[in-house]
Design a protein that fits this description.
alpha/beta; 3-stranded mixed sheet; 17% strand; 7-stranded mixed sheet; single chain
Length: 271
């Protein structure tokens, strides 16, 4: 059975959403075995051990790695973007050298269909852009960051770790933070695009990183083809970007009920 490596980086506030995401991954990828790599700097050992029991029930290999956060003390963070978001950029500093590829997933994602292999075509990373209906955000980000490539979302990425070990440099990232911290709106995502945007393969957002806020946009751009039924049948990864999140009390996203299905499954069978 083929094994796929999954990377997550988070603090303890996102442990329950992580469980929901991993449960959906298990339910929709029955032909694969997974290794879950968790990079963190502050999750208590008791919670790590409890999570290990959950991972065992799903037959996941679980590898928690505690990170020294000293390097990131001066990095810009926000309540919804904590220090852990930077660890994905330097994951090769922490992951074993024998790992060649890994899929990074934000915990606010839901897996609907099997993950499938992507030919990176010599690129270091594969990711999707959330272009909207007119692409105006793309233009704004190009001007803001002085870049020419697409502006890629960092919440779902396929990473070629061999290439990252050669090309991703800690000093480059820290220098950018030191010199441009006040300009970084989505800090780790801006850094990813500014330093490495020209080494990222663009993949279809409708399949790999469907922003659930953009239902109408996808419907309009596809001339009615990409509706809810199409998403359920074809999309691999839903991404609940922005607020409210599907676990919030007042979430009204059309995919919230699907998320709540996995929440109930988790509460009934895996607590």
């Amino acid at each position: 059975m083929e094994k796929i490596n999954i990377l997550v980086t988070l603090d303890k506030s996102y442990i329950k959403p992580l469980k929901v995401m991993l449960l959906s991954l298990k339910e929709t990828n029955v032909d694969y075995k997974f290794s879950i790599w968790l990079l963190h700097d502050s999750i208590p050992e008791t919670e790590i051990n409890h999570f290990r029991g959950f991972a065992d029930k799903l037959d996941y290999d679980f590898h928690p790695l505690k990170i020294d956060a000293t390097y990131w003390q001066t990095a810009p963070t926000l309540k919804q973007y904590p220090t852990e978001m930077y660890y994905r950029l330097l994951c090769t500093e922490y992951l074993p050298v024998n790992l060649e590829r890994i899929i990074y997933l934000d915990p606010d994602t839901l897996i609907l269909n099997p993950l499938w292999s992507i030919d990176l075509k010599g690129n270091m990373i594969a990711a999707a852009s959330h272009l909207g209906l007119t692409g105006i955000n793309q233009t704004i980000n190009n001007v803001r960051l002085r870049t020419k490539s697409e502006y890629f979302n960092s919440g779902v990425m396929l990473l070629d770790l061999s290439k990252m070990r050669v090309k991703v440099n800690k000093s480059d990232i820290l220098d950018l933070i030191r010199n441009h911290a006040s300009e970084l709106l989505l800090p780790d995502q801006d850094i990813l695009n500014y330093l490495y945007g020209n080494q990222i393969l663009s993949i279809p957002e409708e399949i790999w990183n469907f922003d659930t806020r953009d239902n109408i946009v996808h419907f309009a751009k596809s001339r009615g083809q990409v509706d809810t039924n199409w998403v359920i049948a074809n999309t691999s990864i839903l991404h609940f970007c922005g607020r409210p999140k599907p676990w919030d009390k007042h979430s009204i996203n059309r995919f919230t009920i699907l998320y709540q299905h996995y929440q109930r499954m988790l509460e009934l069978n895996y607590q």
